[in-house]
Design the sequence.
């Protein structure tokens, strides 16, 4: 079993139940999924960009990414409807906890000049989103072989009802928020 899943069951869930005085352990907020997405706009000019980004995202998440097409045509960007312009992966269960563990303990500490994640990036429903400027902070990616750096968006979807509950949940998992 994943280390963070054990942590959730043994420490996080009981602590949240006590803090917010939930009657049932089933009412305690938990992680639902993690969505990792990449916008690969350069793929319109050169199809090789989307293939390399797809390989990198597959190595980072351990799951094959879904290729996303453009919803609308935009003449200024030379994008037609249906052009492959993005990738996304939805992680659940075991893979979600393993990815979260690698992200918190390995990738985020490798970011240059890191001062903590923005604590104001929660939405009203208790989901947290942030962006990373390059994929080379993950240990699975060999930075010597990377031709072009690619940023990504990471969204943590929780069952929390409020942003404060979700923030406490992620803090207990070890997310390094700015003070």
Sequence:
């Amino acid at each position: 079993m994943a280390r963070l899943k054990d942590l959730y069951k043994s420490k996080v869930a009981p602590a949240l139940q006590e803090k917010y005085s939930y009657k049932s352990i089933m009412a305690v907020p938990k992680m639902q999924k993690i969505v990792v997405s990449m916008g690969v706009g350069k793929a319109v000019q050169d199809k090789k960009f989307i293939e390399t980004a797809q390989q990198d995202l597959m190595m980072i998440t351990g799951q094959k990414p879904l290729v996303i097409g453009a919803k609308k045509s935009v003449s200024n960007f030379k994008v037609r409807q249906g052009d492959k312009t993005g990738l996304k992966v939805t992680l659940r269960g075991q893979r979600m906890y393993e990815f979260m563990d690698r992200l918190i303990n390995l990738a985020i500490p490798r970011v240059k000049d890191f001062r903590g994640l923005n604590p104001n990036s929660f939405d009203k429903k208790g989901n947290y989103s942030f962006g990373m400027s390059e994929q080379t902070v993950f240990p699975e990616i060999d930075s010597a072989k990377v031709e072009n750096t690619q940023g990504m968006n990471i969204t943590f979807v929780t069952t929390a009802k409020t942003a404060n509950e979700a923030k406490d949940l992620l803090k207990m998992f070890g997310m390094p928020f700015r003070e």
User: Anything to note?
Assistant: The domain at 29-173 is CATH 3.30.1440.10 (50s Ribosomal Protein L5; Chain: A,). The beta strands are 31-39, 66-69, 84-91, 128-132, 152-158. The first helix runs from residue 3 to 20.
